[in-house]
Amino acid sequence: MYTISDVAKLLGITAHTLRYYEKEEIIAPIRNANGERVYDDANLAWLRFVMKLKQTQIPISQIREYAQLYVEGEHTTQARLSLLENHRNSVQSQIRDLTATEKVLKDKIAAYKNSINNGIGYDKITREKWR
């Protein structure tokens, strides 16, 4: 069993974030005899999954929806699958957008390096090119 500070330290988040997730019904930690939050390995695994989802910019409302569906039981498996598939489609779209942006940045960086290596001002070349 882990305390709230243990979990915060293990996951690199704040105790405030954990309390927020509880308030949003994303996690339901166990309470000990003193009423203190304690977390088990299943809570930790779930929180790691939540953090991965957060890295993909999923709205907290969708994480809450997924958590509520999970708590409802096996009959929500299809709904959970659909939610994750829809989100994966969003992530794939983000990846395509980021890949295109990376290419633009790569090309711009190469042009700057080329102009520096050739002793020609990049801004001058750019102005001439766009006239």
Automatic annotation (TrEMBL):
SUPFAM superfamilies recorded: Putative DNA-binding domain
InterPro entries: DNA-bd_dom_put_sf (IPR009061), MerR-type_HTH_dom (IPR000551), MerR_fam (IPR047057)
UniProtKB keywords: DNA-binding
HTH merR-type domain: residues covered: 1-69
Matching PROSITE patterns: HTH_MERR_2
Name of the protein in its database record: MerR family transcriptional regulator
Organism: Paenibacillus marchantiophytorum
Highest taxon of the lineage: Bacteria
